[in-house]
Specification:
By secondary structure, the chain is an alpha/beta fold. The protein has helices at about 1-45, 55-65, 80-95, 115-125, 140-150, 175-185, and strands spanning about 55, 70-75, 105-110, 130-135, 160, 165-170.
């Protein structure tokens, strides 16, 4: 009788763990969908609400690989990077001048996440930046740097311009004239 109890008890534990594992997978899938929907919603919030979405590389990837009729300009920058700050007016002006021309600009901040409230949001407000801003926070730099462009050394400023027909990566600073000159290669 004791042996039968042990077998029954062992079977019960095995069945319990299998069912928990299946529920965990379903919960994980639901959580991923909810998280994705939440991040997409968060990414559209305005900075004046004191929020800037913090994304890891996996969450940022959809912004880097869209295949529609827009041209995307993704700029990697930080508030502590002088050349980055100096080129931001070019992206702001481009955003304003091309807002009705199927161009979308995303400013990906590499600022430290613990300084978003104290540095990044005040910086964005002071300069009244209109393009979307997100923070990239992913400790696996080798993965996301190579994922964005295999030749990127990781230095900033850096800019990705792409559409469904063409993709170019620039590890350099831009002024407005140079930025519009490069953009013309994508929209003509």
């Amino acid at each position: 009788m004791n042996m039968i109890n042990k077998i029954f008890h062992t079977l019960f534990i095995v069945v319990f763990f299998i069912s928990c594992n299946q529920n965990s997978k379903k919960t994980s899938e639901i959580t991923k969908k909810q998280t994705s929907a939440f991040l997409n919603k968060e990414a559209t919030k305005i900075v004046k609400e004191n929020t800037v979405p913090i994304l890891n590389y996996k969450q940022l990837s959809p912004f880097l690989n869209k295949n529609d009729n827009k041209t995307y300009i993704i700029n990697f920058w930080a508030t502590w990077c002088k050349p980055c700050v100096e080129e931001l007016p070019a992206f702001e002006k481009l955003n304003n001048d091309y807002k009705d021309k199927n161009i979308e600009i995303l400013l990906v901040s590499l600022d430290f996440p613990n300084q978003i409230e104290s540095h990044l949001i005040p910086f964005i407000k002071k300069r009244d930046l209109k393009p979307k801003v997100v923070v990239l926070d992913d400790p696996d730099q080798n993965k996301w740097i190579n994922g964005i462009d295999k030749n990127w050394s990781g230095s900033i400023p850096a800019t990705l311009i792409y559409n469904k027909n063409k993709r170019s990566f620039y590890e350099q600073s831009f002024d407005y004239n140079l930025l519009t000159e490069e953009l013309q290669k994508f929209i003509n």
